[in-house]
Structure formats: C-alpha cells, structure tokens
Amino acid sequence: MRRFRAYLVLVAASALAQGACGKSKAPGGGPAAPAHVEGTPHTDAVLDAWKSAGLKPESFAPVVPPPYVAGYCERGAVAGVDATVCEYADDGALDRGQKQVKDEWARTGVHTGVVVRTKRTLLSAVDREARDPNGKTINQLIQAFRKL
Amino acid sequence: MRRILIFAAGLTVLTLSVSAEAAVVRYMSQHPLPRKMGGGFCYIDVPHVHDFGPSDPRMYRQVDGEYYFVGDPSPFNYEGPRHAFYGPHPIVEANVQFGHPEYCYLQGPHYHWYEPPAQASFELRGGAYWFTGTYDPGYYQERPRYMVVNDAYAPIVYERPVVDVRVAPPGFHGEIVAAGPGWRGRAVVGGPPPPLVQVGVGINVGGPPGPVFVEHDNGRHRGWERHERHEDWERHERGGWRGGPPPPAHGGGWRGGGAPGGGGGWRANPAPQQGAWRGNPAPQQGGGWRAGGGKSGHGNAWKR
C-alpha cells in the first residue's frame, strides 16, 4: 500500500511537471516550442488589442521555428490580410528581422505590405490579393498595435 | 525543333530574370490609388509598399526612394480629417520626417490631412492655415520644379476650402489669388471699394463667370484688381484649365496658362528682402494674373 501511494505521488508529480512545461514541448516529444519573449508586448496582447478595436483575428498559431530571427512568432489573418507578429529579445535581432521581411517582399512581391514595431514586437501585415484595397484594415491593425 | 527549344529556353531565362526582383514601390504615408487599381485612397499612414507606382508623380515628393503625397487628398474620395491651408507652406505632418524642409507648392486654398503643430509658424485665419514663417532658400530653388503640382490639379474638379482672404495675416509671404487652374474663387463683391472676397468652392466648370480678384500686396488690401473674363478665356474655363507647362526656372512665380503678352502677369520675386518675400508690384502693362489663357490689357480692370 505504501508503495502504491509513493507511485501515485510520483505519477502526479510527473503529470504536474509535464503540465507546467506543456508550452515548451511540442506534442510527441519533438523539439521545444518557442516561448514568449519577456519585456515586450506578447502576441496574445496584440490579438486582444485588435479584437478590442473590432477586428477579427483568425487562425493565429505559433510559427515553429520562428522566422525572421525572432524569439517567438504567430501568424494568422485579419479580414483577408496576412499578419505575422514576432517578439524579439533585442533591437539588433528586430532590425535584422525587419530587413528580412522587406527583402522577402522584394523577392516575391506583395500587393501591399507594412512592417511596424512596438517596443521589441514586430508586426508584418501583407495583403496579397487586394482584399484590403484602401488599406483601412491594415491601418486599423497598425493603430491598435502602436498603442501597446 | 531546335529553334523552338532555343526560343523556349530564352523565354524561360527572361521570365526568371524578370521575376527575380519583384516590383516594390515604397510610400511614406497615405496617398491616392491609381485608377488602374480601382481609384480611391490608401489610408495607411506609415511607410509601406505596393506593387504599383503613383498615378501622377507630380503630386509626390520622392525622399530616399519613398514617395510622399504632397497634394490635396480631397479629389480622391478621401474620407479622413481635412484641414484647410492657403498657399505654399512647409509640410508639417507630425509622423513624417524628411530630414530637411519640404514644401507644399499648392496655390490658393487647399486641404491636407494634417494640421500644423502649435509651435510651427502658421496662423489660422479666415478658415485656413497661413504660413507666416520665412521660406528657406530650398523653397525658392525647388519651386520651379515642384510648382507642377498645380498643373496636376488643374483638370480636376473638386471643392476647395472657402477662405476669407481679407483677413490674411500680414506675415503671409505668398501670393493671394482668387482663382487658379482647376478652380475659381467665387468673389462676392460688396461694391468697390471695399471688395469682399470669399475664395473657395472652386469649381472650374459651369455657371456664369464671376470676377477674379488678385491681391498684389499680401493681405494689406490695397490694389485689388478686377479682371473681367475675356470670352476666349471663358471658353477655356468651361472646358477646364488649359494651362501650359510650368514656368521656366528663372524665378517667375506661377502663372496659370499661357503668359499674357507684353510682360503681363504678376510674378513673385523670389529674392527675399529683409528676410521676407514680397510679391512684385503690379505689372506695368496691366497684365495681372490670369487663370488659363487670359489676355491682358483689355481695360476692364478696375483698381482701388
């Protein structure tokens, strides 16, 4: 009985530990998923700000591994505009990431593209198919993002 | 068969070389959309890129490879805030930095989406902001090049702001004109003297022609001239402005359309004296400024 109790405690402790680290482990024991970067607005806060502004972010999910030398990135769409929000640990990495975004546009072309920063969080919004012809959605995204 | 293969290979190489670098055009702020893109206005007020260029480069300033729209957004279905200005002035959009002074060269009353910051040398009078500071030398140097923005607006029919030029601030150093290419001030005359001039609602088509007032003394309300429209000009007016090319770079101020013969047409002398630019005295042969192919010296003008 004592052995059984000890076993239960071990199992519970293991489950707790796994739960606590759930965000940093990919399912199936794959490579560790990136964690949010401290000291700059998190992606969740960006999405909340957009929702508060009446926008509807859709299908946002972490990008693994994070692109543009970022510490953490999520990608999704808002009213047909592709948006990528990335968090950076330092300004140098953010500058390099911003340049990579622009270089990518120069290579592949975009109908409309904007990349702006707030603190060390970078927003890249791309309208590939002219879903936002007058840029009003993109401008709303930027206005809300800049208030963070 | 061999020829076809060589042609196909050449075509592939050409396609790849073209697609290697996509067209990316950089804009600094908001701007009109070209008609081929459906027209209207782009409201993105931060630096951004498009895969199309500006519809009319005369309405833009290019700074470090980025296009900045320097014109009046009103004719392009613009729905944002608008602030009225009168005459040329420094561009004072808060979140746009050029690194050096850039000027708007639009004549007469016009709108922008920005308003001057409190510390800038502008006075709000008669319904518009007037620049009362001193133009730096760059303003005069670039003027011949950038006055073409007025040509760009010439054929566009839209409402300009209504500005009461009687209350122009004395510190305003630009020209006060009651009409320009593409717009015409509706001068309401209270009987000479004094003339009551309300400039604005500039529509260049339809309606009987009204008198045009040109002030030659920068708001001190002397020397008003009334220029009756000549029939030739009236026909031009109805068909929209038929202004010629911008004036040559030898210091002449803007004159709409063909220059009147015999030295007519008031010009602003670019040489500042005592730190402030003043318009020249009225032309000797009774010319006066004409908005589009006007003729001088027909004896219909009156002077106060």
Structure overview:
With 148 residues, chain A is α+β, with helices and mostly antiparallel strands. Chain A has helices at 2-20, 43-52, 91-108, 136-146, and strands at 57-62, 72-78, 81-87, 112-118, 121-127. Chain A has two domains: 1-33; 43-146, Protein Transport Mog1p, Chain A, CATH 3.40.1000. Chain A is 39% helix and 23% strand. A five-stranded antiparallel beta sheet of chain A has the order 1-2-3-5-4, sandwiched between helices. In chain A, strand 4 (112-118) and strand 5 form a beta hairpin. Chain B is of the alpha+beta class and 304 residues long. Chain B has two domains: 25-69, no CATH class; 79-303, no CATH class. Helices cover 14% and strands 19% of the residues of chain B. In chain B, a hairpin with an 8-residue loop joins strand 2 (31-32) and strand 3.
Short summary:
The complex is a heterodimer of chains A (148) and B (304). Chain A is of the alpha+beta class and 148 residues long. Chain A has helices at residues 2-20, 43-52, 91-108, 136-146, and strands at residues 57-62, 72-78, 81-87, 112-118, 121-127.
Strand order in space, largest sheet of chain B: 4-1-6-5
Uncertain ranges of chain B:
13-19, 186-304
Oligomer: heterodimer
Rg value of chain B = 22 Å
Q: Work out the helix count of chain A.
A: 4
Strand content of chain A: 15-25%
The coarse silhouette of chain B is globular
The tally of domains of chain B stands at 2
Helix content of chain A: 25-40%
Distance between the termini of chain A: 56 Å
State the major sheet of chain B: 4 strands, mixed
